[in-house]
Fold:
Amino acid sequence: MSGKAVSRRGRRIALTAALGAVLSCVTTAAWAQSPALEALRQRPAEDEVIYFLLPDRFENGDTANDRGGLTGDRLATGYDPTDPGFYHGGDLKGLTERLDYIQGLGATALWIAPVFRNKPVQGRPGQESAAYHGYWITDFTRVDPHLGTEDDFRALVDAAHARGMKVYLDIVINHTADVIQYRECPANDCDYRWSRDYPVQRRGGLHGAPINPDFDGTDVARIVRPDYAYTPYVPAGEEAAKAPAWLNEVGLYHNRGNSAWHGESALDGDFAGLDDVMTEHPRVIQGFIEVYGDWIERYGIDGYRIDTVKHVDPAFWQAFVPTMLARAEAAGIPNFHIFGEIYAFEPGELARHTRIDGLPSVLDFAWQRAVQESVAGTQGADRLARVIHADPVYDGGEAAALRLPTFIGNHDMGRIGHLILKERPDISDQELLDRAILAHAMIILGRGVPVIYYGDEQGFTGDGDDRRSRQDMFETRVPSYADDRRIGRASGPFDTEAEMYRHIAEMTRVRAADRRLRRGRVVVRTADQAPGILALSRLDDAGETLVVFNTATEARQVNVQVDVGSADWRSLIGTCPGASAAPGVLSVSVPALGYVVCVSEGPVT
Structure:
């Protein structure tokens, strides 16, 4: 990527030294432990079932904070519960009140969208929206007042821990809220200016006046003026909008305009107008290490989901990740789970960030796409097998793949119900239910750490991606949410008798009771090239658990290869024969768009 790739190699020595300095300051004071909390701390990532939610859309426990302490209309406060792009009132107190509901589903860990203070409203005049989602951060050190207080967050973490539930916090490194503007384009809709045309040593292009003569391409700290591509400035009144204070320095941002999503712009471009942080700068590295290390030590949280990983300099992660793990370890949190978001659907591209960036785990977008295509009937069952066969490419190989969080929809791409209906808009309610249940079975009973997107257990489908998939769990005032097509029966908000809730809870109970479904070695037994059978064995020294999925619309009787030592079988879900049809072969009947789980106890050969 132009001259920047060379400069990154030159920074490695300096970053290693900086990392050593930070590690020397790691706290040795362990987080206060109770026996119950100690048991939670010892639980490995593979054992979790994660429930992902946006606090603003979950439950309103305190109406006094709906406007975040601000006054005025919705463009001042960000609050408008009738608009899908504004705050609706959900908060941390409401989430704490609903922990029993989440735990009843079988979830063991909460993944919470960013809780940090955000710029309440931003956007062009007439196109404004609010930061209800949490990704437009100005203050990385405090809780957004729309969601509550630091005490509310502490109470949530303590209440979750008391139930044996972990808390994972969604964090952002790549960008902040849109504060910095450019003189050349007042609407802040600036095209990316490439370093080959706008080098940092010149003002305004190749033939401009020298402005950073001391910059040698290796030490970004020598870039003393940031106006090489555009002329950045901070509007009056926002000079101290960000915290920590170092984030207010314009020279710690790339200031090259909006990303073109390829080449160097993927790292250095503004994320749809959001201020792109210069993550290769040593001050930024150390600053964010202190920010997020402090959240671990103050609250005893259990993990980080990291937003927009591929848009951050790899050297940042090489310093940040080991330091976060060290600080968590020093705080008495040995299984701190870090997983990154890389919006890409090929295992090789995902695995690259475990091998080069050093991330312990990443969200398994490859599995999501394979499940989506299989349950929608656009690909055969072998699509899923190909993803599993690629597991060795991750750093740590197949064992590391067991820690990949798997999911079937989210707040960006939309819900699985919508994704199914997009391919099959005219299917019956029963078929939609069957396909949605099967999709959840593939993440809960397949391989990896399942992530349940809030509201899926109530049958939400949504009308698309982004804000169209971020419905209110409480009674909504948004018309497009109120007319949502639902999957299965549900009588109202937080209905623990809803069909999807009961099916998911059954799957999570089976997963929790069978160690092999969480940690067992994965072997693909059968994978049809058309809609049909995917059979997976999960193996350890104590036996074999067989999961057989059927993506076809007719029942299948299938002979599945199993371990020759697996002779006697019992059913966990569905109906399994009591014995193998012959040594190494089990004959099972699988319903249309259904699945069965069979277990054989005893040494495998």
Summary: Confidence is low (pLDDT under 50) at residues 1-31. The first strand starts at residue 50 and ends at 53.
